[in-house]
Structures are given as C-alpha cells and as structure tokens.
Amino acid sequence: MTETQTYDIISATVWAVLLASGPVLGVALAIGLVIAFFQALTQIQEMTLTFVPKIVMIFVTLLAATPFMYATLKNLSDTIFDLVQNGGL
C-alpha cells in the first residue's frame, strides 16, 4: 500500500465523519444562535433556556438524519472492506 492510497483512505474517512456529523452540528449551531439572540434581546439569562431546546432539537435531528448517517458510514465501510478483500490494504 502506497502513501497515496493511505492518504485517500484517511481523506475519505474524515470526509465521511464530517458528512455524518454535519446535520447534527448544524442544527446545534443554528438553535444556539437563535437562543443567544433571544437571550440578548430579552436579557433572560436562564441556563435551562439554552440547554433544553438545543438537546431536544439535537435528538430530533438524530432521529431524522440517522438513515443518512448510516448510508454515509456504510458506504465508507464497504469501500474499506472492498479494498481489504481485493488486497489493496
């Protein structure tokens, strides 16, 4: 196995992890910004106001994005296992 093949595998792995975690991180960022703006406008500094809506939306997003995350990681694992089976590793 050459350095180029190793780099390609690592690159594909990092890309798959970023794609799989992207929806959850994006929703957490968006909800955090909305809550921060709300707190800045109303001057309500309650800790549960930041935690509860964010965690609820993260769980909802996890439920909705699970098929996409599974397909992304399954594609990566199929690629890696095909390389192993064909002697590419």
UniProtKB/TrEMBL annotation:
The chain crosses the membrane at residues 12-39, 51-73. Its main location: membrane. It comes from the Bacteria. It is a multi-pass membrane protein. It is found in: Cell membrane; Bacterial flagellum basal body. Keywords: Bacterial flagellum, Cell membrane, Cell projection, Cilium, Flagellum, Membrane, Transmembrane, Transmembrane helix. Role in flagellar biosynthesis. Belongs to the FliQ/MopD/SpaQ family. PANTHER family: FLAGELLAR BIOSYNTHETIC PROTEIN FLIQ (PTHR34040:SF2). This is Flagellar biosynthetic protein FliQ. It comes from Sulfitobacter profundi. The gene is fliQ.
